[in-house]
Amino acid sequence: MGATDLTATELNSRLIELNAGYARAIDDGDFEAWPEFFLEDGFYKLTTADNVAQGMEAGLIYADSRNMLRDRVSALRMANIFERHRYRHIVGLPTVLGVEGAGARTDASFLVVRIMRDGTMDLFAAGRYLDRVEAVADGSLRFRERIVVCDSNRFDTLVAIPL
Amino acid sequence: MNAIEQRVVWPPGMVSGAPYWAYQDEATYRLEQKRIFGGAVWNFVCLEADVARPGDYRTTFAGEMPVIVARGEDGEIYAFENRCVHRGALIALDDGGSNAKDFQCVYHAWTYDLKGNLKGVAFEEGSNGKGGMPKDFRKEKHGPRKLYTATLCGLVFASLSDNVPPIEDYLGEAILGRIQRVLCKPTRVIGRFTQALPNNWKLYAENVKDTYHASLLHLFFGTFRITRLTQGGGVLVSEDGGHHASYTIDAPGDAKSEEYAKQGIRSESKEYRLADPSMLDSVDEFGDRIQLQILTVFPGFVLQQINNALAVRQILPKGVGRMELNWTYFGFEDDTPEMRKRRLKQANLVGPAGFVSMEDGCVGGFVQRGVAAAGDEFSMMQMGGDATETDTTRATEASVRGFWKAYRTHMGI
After folding, report:
1. CA A18 to CA A135: how far, in whole Å?
2. Closest by alpha carbon to B38, among B317, B243, B312, B244?
3. CB 3.0–4.6 Å: which of A22, A56, A96, B84 could bond A51 by disulfide?
4. C-beta separation of A146 from A59 below 8 A
5. How far is CA A7 from CA A11, A13, A14, B47, B265, in A?
6. What CATH number should be reported for the domain holding residue A136?
């Protein structure tokens, strides 16, 4: 089944489910669930609006396989050092920009608040998810591609947890 | 003398320890703006490619001083303070641009040419015979401060000092050679990011020169043998102490790797393996088996080669306890599509989300907060003795001591 087999209403409601599940996994600290929202050869990039506007390809995070995302999670759990913190995502309603092939091009705005262990809360990131989604066997959606386009070029301290 | 303001004395010539007030003191910070960033140093300001054609310009900083770098109609690169001589407003507001003929301050429309010369004063003669500037006003006598510029391997440096040596002499032969090694052909920028760090700029300058911490703080380095203190390599320190280049040579075998396990160091993890190791698929593009080279130019420039991930970083102070790090990721114009992809994947190692560099974003803040009540105490930098010389081990703090040597020289303290 492809995203093209879904009615517009089905597609919309599944997009909302996908985005809500994605944000919940990260905000709950269930990082192991995060790569599972992607297809096996899915693509994830964290970049900025300026880089996109200037045709610059690099990202802060650049992964062209689900396994690369799993490696991010292992590093987060076992290797990288950072002060304990969490995120709270607020994801806007998704828009279907186009349906093509087996998938759909969609986008959604996001805000991420970062809460540090000492209680400091900051608006950590704002931006837009630029996505390509496809439906899998049970009809739920997965990301073929998620490009996180942050509105600001400046990142405070570090980005350990994915956006 | 007000006893309340007295600080612990920093013994003259001491570079194996720095008093923590150096990261906290507002007066010291102000003096640094004059004597370091405004002194006889070369500040990295941009890439030559950023101002490739006449009329191209870029706004940046030398320390806290806002600076415009522009390519003049004569093809030369000019740098001047981004401050209107009239009332002090910024002359250029954007990050940069092209095809500029001149710059006009938005406040009262005073205009400057691409060299920073004041060329136009709105209503200079007044209006209807009234007002205007005094009769003896001469535009050519006024202008924002101009900086000397120097280009090297596609990098643009700027200096406010009449006494700064030519860039090649400033760097010395050894460091110069290490820059030329990486920047050996035309580059292409592939991304730019800014990282705001919650610490004094010197904490990052020290961190990037600190060869001792790399494989201890950063688990990724150790586990995947990107660099280990037991691998071949070393550190070059310039004569004045201010510049350095550390490097790791890919040595087959790595026979001494048990040394880490013996030290009981957290960064030795045998279980940790990548599910997709394609990120570490690197090639010896410079043909010398040097896997990693980190190079600094005093006070605020970093050139990084970590496998095939190449970047320059600009350290900018933003107040006593804040700084920004501007990352410019690049490749070369002749990169094949495979090489471009490799660089994009290896960029995961560096930057604010880098597997091996994200810790550097927070560790300076840990120090800044840790020393909050310890202004009269000193850090200890005695690994490898007291010297600031080139060494063949990286289990030394020679290049960090070098930083303080250059710092004390420029500051006159």
Report:
1. 11
2. B317
3. A56
4. no
5. 6, 10, 11, 51, 56
6. 3.10.450.50
Would you report the helix, strand and coil content of chain A in percent, each value rounded to 5?
30, 40, 30
- Answer yes or no: is A162 within a domain: no
* Residue A57 per-residue DSSP state: -
Return d(Cα B393, Cα B234) in angstroms, integer: 5
Which of B348, B357, B368 to substitute to test the interface with A, most A CBs within 10 Å? B348
Any idea which of A61-70, B159-168, B268-277 has the lowest mean pLDDT? B268-277
Kind plus residue range of the DSSP H or E element containing A25: helix A8-27
- Domain limits at A38? 3-150
Find the chain B residues whose C-beta atoms sit closer than 8 A to any C-beta of A.
189-198, 217, 219-220, 223, 269, 271-272, 274-276, 278-279, 324, 329, 340, 343-345, 347-348, 351-355, 358-359, 361-363, 365-366
Residue A163 located in a structural domain = no
pLDDT in tens, B202-226: 999 999 999 888 778 888 866 655 5
Mean pLDDT of B91-101: 96
Name the amino acid, one letter, at B117.
N
B284 token code pair: 């010896």
> Does some domain include residue A161?
no
Checking B14-18 for CB contacts under 8 A at 24+ apart, the result is: B15/B241, B15/B381, B15/B386, B15/B388, B15/B401, B15/B402, B15/B404, B15/B405, B15/B408, B16/B380, B16/B381, B16/B382, B16/B386, B16/B397, B16/B401, B17/B378, B17/B379, B17/B380, B17/B381, B17/B382, B18/B378, B18/B379, B18/B381, B18/B404
Res. B256: pLDDT tops 50: no
Buried b (16+ CB within 10 A) or exposed e, B71-90: bbeeeebbbbbbbbbeeeeb
Residue carrying the six token digits 């410019």: B328
CA distance A113 to chain B (A): 16
| A138 located within any domain | yes
CA dihedral angle for residue B298, residue B300, residue B303, residue B307, rounded to 10 degrees: 110
Q: What is the DSSP string of B46-97?
A: EEGGGG-STT-EEEEEETTEEEEEEE-TTS-EEEEESS-TTT---S--SSEE
Tally of domains in chain A = 1
Classify the phi-psi angles of B270: left when phi > 0, otherwise alpha if psi is within -120 to 50, otherwise beta. Answer: alpha
Average pLDDT over residues B111-123: 97
Gap between the Cα atoms of B19 and B379, Å rounded: 6
Residue of chain B minimizing CA distance to A51: B191
Please report the ipTM that was assigned to this predicted complex.
Answer: 0.96
Q: Three-state SS for B247? A: strand
Three state DSSP letters for A67-93: HHHHHHHHHHHHCCCCCCEEEEEEECC
A158·B353 Cβ contact <8 A: yes
Q: Render the burial of A55-69: b for 16+ CB within 10 Å, e for the rest.
A: ebbbbbbbbbbbbbb
Q: Is B367 exposed, middle or buried (0-12, 13-18, 19+ CB in 10 A)?
A: middle
